[in-house]
Amino acid sequence: MAFDIQEELKKLPHNPGVYIMHDAGDTILYVGKAVDLHNRVRSYFRKIIGRGPQIDRMVEQVAYFEYIVTDSELEALVLENNLIKENSPKYNTLLKDDKTYPYIKVTMGEPYPRILFSREMKKDRSRYFGPFTSSAAVRDTIDLLNRLYRLRNCNRSLPRDIGLERPCLNYHISQCDAPCQGNISQEEYRSHIDAAVDFLNGNIKPVIRDLESRMNKASEELNFEEAAALRDLLESVRSVTQKQKITDSDGEDRDVVAMAREETDAVIQVFFVRGGKLIGREHYYMENIGDFEDSVIMHDFVQQFYAGTPYVPRELMLQYEIEDKELIENWLSEIRGSRVYILNPKRGSREKFVELASQNARLVLDRDRERIRKEKERTVGAVAEIENWLDMEGLRRMEAYDISNISGFANVGSMVVYEDGKPKRSDYRKFRIKTVAGPDDYACMREVLSRRFRHEGEDNSFHKFPDIILMDGGRGQVNIALSVLDELHINIPVAGMVKDDNHRTRGLYYNNIEIPIDTRSEGFKLLTRIQDEAHRFAIEYHRSLRSKSQVHSVLDEIPGVGPKRRRSLMKAFESIDDIRAAAPEEISEKAGLPLNVAEEISRYLKK
After folding, report:
1. Distance of CA 104 to the CA centre of its chain
2. Quick check: 53 and 291 in contact, CB under 8 A?
3. Which residue in 141, 191, 386, 481 has a CA-CA distance of 20 to 30 Å to 257?
4. Span 5-92: which CATH code?
5. Domain 556-605 belongs to what architecture?
6. At residue 290, what are phi and psi to the nearest 5 degrees?
7. Is the Cα dihedral 308, 314, 318, 323 positive or negative?
């Protein structure tokens, strides 16, 4: 039945929830939240919308909408975030971010805690410091603290494993007190950890005084080797904890967020202030900003960024006031576990801090304008060229396929996905051919496409169909794809990437004709990248299967090596040559095998 928008508007409930706008092709155009779904969704379809040209254009494309009722506006906010992240709707402003930040993790829940590097902050009994913007600086700091306080960095479970194994090298070079041997009590070790935590909290003066005193004493006693080691340690402390250029006397954790925009581009700059010190800064790009107001872009950044970051500070200082400020504060407070405040400084040093962030955002935007332009040319611009060649619109998701085998051995297929001209590797898929024996690429491709479009295994990514299928070949491959789609009653355009004698794309086979393309264009370069990527992905999978098959065949012949030990060897070593080159002790340690079995394996492989 046709979707009657006016009739469905009457049925909308007066409840909080999320609404989802679709076009005629089922593509999600926009996701939004509402305190009252009835009033919010109806507002889009009034004759005078007043939401700006971008939303007006969106409404013109809406074929139908759906909605999800929630118990509260806060639940709607969380659900909206999830749906935007999952679907990247065309008319939502989108945070372009693939950054993850390092943290220093102190495992306070362990009897003998360790200081570790972490990319995520979990709700456990550990203490976290950060986020930091330099992985190298974090690793240097951890190494320094381990040396300074002689802490363990092993994975042994203490006190259970005390005395079971010999101490490691760190004990012998005086960089660990060997709690694994019971050489230090839990109480004394804990005092070292407390001192390290104090150091991470910024109290470094006692450490510097102690190191200076010990260095001077060693020098007076003519123990120059120890004095030099203490001097180097002192320099490490000063290097890691060098004074920041910007400080805040109140010692709070806060993020300072400001932006700069130009035409279709916006850059958000975030200053990370921890314990009153500026520890780093990062910038982020916002896409699909259209004619949205600055406050809307700022609101959407806060909503999307802090839904994905593992740490929320006590304060956010924003350049612009945002809608639903109280709701966002409550949501952030729930994530943090304590009260979060959103501020909009208008005067004084804090206002200057926000202005400094804005100036930095402007510098990034000016610096990267040309890079952004070129990136758009090679991605979105390239897709637009392909649309023009094929006389199509709305090419966002493209899928390409390839087959790899050697004389019919281990037939495999690959599926690569490009969205907006960029690879979406999370949606790549491999296929091990089940029904075809021998070198029959057409039959293999038929199996791959049938399995993909029948949603084999209920793979969630398979439920999202492409806007076009690109086949690695001409008429034959295209016809195979069209016949599979016809059998499944699916309507998706299919084009073949026709190759020349050098196996390079020379044109597109579409609607029974070969369309010549400009080999100097960005569209041609994108097609070549897609073709090469599908080929590479298939070959890598085939190579891995060949390697495993060879390892299996040799290891099966070794006395005393059954399926379980064979799996252990394959997990521990990449190839049979690596096992052959390893000493029996290494084989035993890495694969967890008895030494006598490892010796037998080594002897057999070196015959």
Report:
1. 19
2. yes
3. 141
4. 3.40.1440.10
5. Orthogonal Bundle (1.10)
6. 45, -130
7. positive
| H or E element, residue 305 | helix 294-308
pLDDT under 50: residue ranges of the chain: 243-249, 408, 551
Torsion on CA atoms 548, 575, 565, 410, rounded to nearest 10: 0
Q: Does domain 254-367 have CATH number 3.30.420.10?
A: yes
CB distance 305 to 98 below 8 Å: no
Q: Which amino acid is located at 188 in the chain? A: E
The 3-state secondary structure of 35-91 reads: CCHHHHHHHCCCCCCCCCHHHHHHHHHCCEEEEEECCCHHHHHHHHHHHHHHHCCCC
Instruction: Please report the pLDDT score of residue 142 as a whole number.
Output: 87
Residue 358 amino acid letter: S
Residue 245 has a pLDDT of 40
The per-residue pLDDT for 303 is 92
What CA–CA distance (Å, rounded) separates 574 from 500?
Answer: 36
Look up residue 536 and give its amino acid. R
User: What H or E segment, with its residue span, contains residue 526?
Assistant: helix 522-555
Any idea where the domains of the chain sit in the sequence?
5-92, 103-204, 254-367, 384-546, 556-605
What CATH number should be reported for the domain whose range is 384-546? 3.30.420.340
The reported pLDDT for the residue numbered 546 is 57
CATH topology match: 254-367 vs 384-546? yes
**What's the Cα-to-Cα distance from 383 to each of 29, 90, 268, 272, 512, rounded to whole Å?**
19, 15, 27, 37, 21
